[in-house]
UniProtKB/TrEMBL annotation:
Protein name (record): Pectinesterase inhibitor domain
Pfam families xref list: Pectinesterase, PMEI
Pathways per UniProt: Glycan metabolism; pectin degradation; 2-dehydro-3-deoxy-D-gluconate from pectin: step 1/5
Superkingdom of origin organism: Eukaryota
Residue ranges annotated for the Pectinesterase inhibitor domain, each copy included: 54-206
Organism, scientific name: Dillenia turbinata
Keyword Hydrolase: yes
GO molecular function: enzyme inhibitor activity; pectinesterase activity
UniProt-listed SMART domains: PMEI
Membrane-spanning segments: 12-37
InterPro entries referenced in this protein's UniProt entry, alphabetically: Invertase/methylesterase_inhib (IPR035513), Pectin_lyas_fold (IPR012334), Pectin_lyase_fold/virulence (IPR011050), Pectinesterase_cat (IPR000070), Pectinesterase_inhib_dom (IPR006501)
Similarity-based family: In the C-terminal section; belongs to the pectinesterase family.
Length: 345
């Protein structure tokens, strides 16, 4: 009987959280906010502090777990109107963050046109690329929040945390590029991105709080994540990675490296249409839904390979660690921003 009652209570809790999404976070934070508001109310002896509306209380609650509460509260007060829906408030926070990062993108373009220092100019070009990436990751998080499916809660929350962390990294990498530059461009970009960096950090704190509260309620979140399969050989290197949960992809990883069935072949010796990796990248389908396999034959490929975000579901397989080699020569000392020095990126 006890077990049945417990199961029923959990089912009711799941239904409630599924429909409201962030209500659990609000309940968890309301105690602290309520205590603060009560103390404020007592200060004027009226029993209720003038000017504290339902929307203000909701904003304070949503901003409670963040590191930059003042930035959170001021931006949401200006952007969110009178809504008290925590989901809408967090969506508003994401939109404001996107706007602030876009301002950084625009500023990097303006500054680059005026820049005389070659290293600073390259750093600004890197910032433009990184800000576009940050905006894309922020949009993914926003869309995930809008289409939240409780049956995939763990996966969706983890995805959002990854994307928001990536957005923070993009902004920090942008600023890192100005080391040893002679102009004031770095300080200007730092000032422009100040609010954006704080808001992105706040967004990550909000999403992390949702995960924490769901865990505190002891509710079993449905998950489809797979554990490593120690029995599966991946090109001779052991288990299948967690992120390869697609049957087709897992099968491809278990194919022997010397017997691939590629969609494209790159051959340094000229036996294929493509003799460089960059040449084949131009012909690969964009935003592919199926896995595209590129086999790179034995040889030393002296080139800088950049795989952009449109080349989705791409798998590159070489002839072996000692047979297929990719090597580049770009480095920071010669004036290339660190972000651009990777041989394959």
């Amino acid at each position: 009987m006890y077990n049945e009652d417990t199961k029923k209570r959990k089912r009711y809790a799941i239904i409630g959280i599924s429909s409201l999404l962030l209500v659990a976070m609000v309940i968890g934070a309301t105690v602290g906010v309520g205590a603060t508001l009560s103390k404020d109310s007592e200060s004027d002896g009226s029993g209720e502090k003038p000017g504290i509306t339902a929307s203000v209380k909701a904003i304070k609650t949503v901003c409670q777990p963040t590191d930059y509460k003042e930035t959170c509260e001021s931006t949401l007060t200006a952007a969110a109107g009178n809504t008290t829906d925590p989901k809408e408030l967090i969506k508003a926070a994401f939109k404001v963050t996107e706007k602030k990062i876009s301002e950084g993108l625009q500023q990097s373009s303006v500054l680059q046109e005026l820049e005389k220092d070659p290293r600073a100019s390259k750093a600004l070009a890197t910032c433009k690329e990184l800000m576009n990436s940050a905006i894309d990751d922020l949009k993914k998080s926003f869309n995930h929040l809008g289409s939240f499916d409780f049956s995939k809660a763990e996966e969706m929350l983890e995805d959002m945390k990854i994307w928001l962390s990536s957005t923070i990294t993009d902004q920090e990498t942008c600023l890192d590029g100005f080391q040893n530059t002679t102009s004031s461009a770095g300080e200007k970009m730092k000032a422009v991105l100040k609010t954006a960096r704080e808001l992105t950090s706040n967004g990550l704190a909000m999403v992390s709080e949702i995960s924490s509260v769901l865990g505190d309620l002891n509710i079993q979140i449905p998950t489809k994540r797979r554990l490593l399969n120690d029995d599966a050989s991946v090109l001779g290197h052991g288990g299948v990675p967690l992120w390869f949960n697609n049957a087709e992809q897992r099968k491809l990883l278990q194919v022997a490296a010397n017997n691939p069935k590629p969609d494209f072949v790159v051959a340094k010796d000229g036996s294929s249409k493509y003799n460089t990796i960059n040449s084949v990248l131009k012909d690969l389908p964009k935003n592919s839904k199926k896995t595209i396999v590129v086999y790179i034959k034995e040889g030393i490929y002296e080139e800088q390979v950049v795989i952009n975000k449109t080349l989705t579901n791409l798998m590159m397989v070489g002839a072996g660690a000692e047979k297929t080699k990719i090597t580049g020569k770009l480095n920071w000392k010669d004036g290339t921003p660190t972000y651009k020095t990777a041989t394959v990126g």
